[in-house]
Amino acid sequence: MEIEIKRVDKSLPLPTYERGASCFDFVCREDVQIKPNEIGLIPTNAIVKVPDNYTLLVFSRSSTPLKKGLMLANGVGVIDSFFCGDSDEIMVEFFNITNKLVKIARGEVLAQGLLVKYEQGVWKEVEKMGSLGRGGF
Fold it and tell me: Strands (DSSP E) along 3-83, which ranges?
């Protein structure tokens, strides 16, 4: 599947897949500093035209919390197909969970993207669900 992408800075590489990986890596477009217990935006250098009936999910790389002390502030980023204008660079929100300033260098890889096919459902409202349930929280 071909996917349209625009790099904001052409001197940085396109997002890359490791052989056999389901996710591709985003690179940080510029040096960023995030103060302790604050949220910072990391520019990924990518504007992606997500294909129809797909969404692009953005996750932290598994090593990011341990190596940098950063966690995705919103858990998972969701990029819809209409978010693809010339100024719609994907920005990743990271929360600094440490008590020190965290520095991110241009070209560093902290986040990854996963393309997922989806189907929109149509609600069918009912009066009963057909079972009593399990009593969960």
Answer: 4-7, 16-17, 24-26, 32-34, 39-43, 46-49, 54-60, 70-72, 77-79
Q: Which residue, chain included where needed, has tokens 């100024």?
A: 87
Q: How many domains does the chain have?
A: 1
Q: Does residue 136 form part of some domain?
A: no
Among 103, 85, 86, residue whose Cα is nearest residue 94 = 103
- Residues 2 and 111: their CA atoms lie apart, in Å, by 21
Residues 14-65 pLDDT 10s = 998 999 999 999 999 999 999 999 999 999 999 999 999 999 999 999 999 9
**What predicted TM-score, i.e. pTM, was given to this entire model?**
0.90
